[in-house]
Amino acid sequence: MFGIIFLLAFLSFSPLYSDEESSEYLAEKEYNGVTYDLLPDSTITIKHVNFSDTVATKLTIPEEIAIKGRKYPVRSISSRAFTLSSCNTVVLPSTIDSIAPYAFYACSNLTNISIPENVTKINDGAFWNCSSLVSVTLPNGLKSIGFRAFARCISLVSITVPDSCDVIGDEAFCECYEMKDLTIGTNITHIGFHAFYRLTSLDRMTIKATTPPSYSEFIDTHIQGKSLFVPEESIQAYTKDTNWKLMNVFPIE
Questions:
Q1: Which of 16, 131, 154, 215 is 20 to 30 A from 42 in CA distance terms?
Q2: Radius of gyration over alpha carbons of the chain, in Å?
Q3: How far is CA 72 from the centre of its chain?
């Protein structure tokens, strides 16, 4: 009940499309239950996916959309575009390079998704409360993961953050209760406050960075004493670090 009240409150105080967004597009087209907008830079954004069951449970987004006889590349996903949609699988084209904050917020049927290689940032709340999400593939060029990007993805079992990513934001993976295996790449430098809050099922965390990343405040109590695997040459650095020493540190096998 609390979750429903919270969701309704979030939507009521956060309009589906801001005035700024609605005034930017030049033309609009609906195709297979999805509304696309043509932006001033001659690219297409996914504006809105219908809430109803008439939209396919597996939705494949095309690379181009034709408007008035001309084709334009699909490059972005607007804020809350997939909120409450019935899709369980979304196939995004390689042309996508931007996913707005809260783009998939509360897309509760979504089970798996692969983020296109051109996306360099997972914005705030992008997949927050995607409660059925089991599998996520992050792109190799990803630079940062925002605030609550994957918070309350309560079915997510494992995730690999690529070597290119250097920042994981506050509460990025908080309350991912089923998360068992978390791997973080070589370039990570900072992990935000409560990023791993309530990862109660975590069995193993791997950090490939030779220098221990900074961690806002103190490491979350729910992962203290859990197994942390790091490069063998960095064992001493991690065991002396104020935060990481609270985990059981082992060399990467």
A1: 16
A2: 19
A3: 26
Structural domain boundaries enclosing 61: 30-222
Q: Would residue 141 count as lying in a domain? A: yes
Would strands 34-38 and 44-49 be described as parallel, antiparallel, or unpaired?
Answer: antiparallel
Cα separation, 202 vs 216, in Å, equals 20
The first and second tokens of residue 27, run together, are 């033309």
pTM across the whole model: 0.88
AA identity, residue 19: D
Q: Which pLDDT score is estimated for 86?
A: 83
Residue indicated by tokens 């995607």: 130
Give the chain's domain count.
1
Instruction: Give the model confidence (pLDDT) of 147-190 as tens digits.
Output: 999 999 999 999 999 999 999 999 999 999 999 999 999 999 99
Q: Give 13-22's long-range contacts (Cβ < 8 A, gap of 24+).
A: 14/80, 14/102, 16/48, 16/80, 16/83, 17/47, 17/48, 17/78, 17/79, 17/80, 18/79, 21/47, 21/78, 21/79
Domain membership flag for residue 248:
no
Q: What contacts 94, CB < 8 A, 6 or more positions away? A: 63, 116, 117, 118
Q: Has residue 239 been placed in a domain? A: no
Q: Identify the residue whose tokens are 């985990």.
A: 247
The type of residue at 109 is N
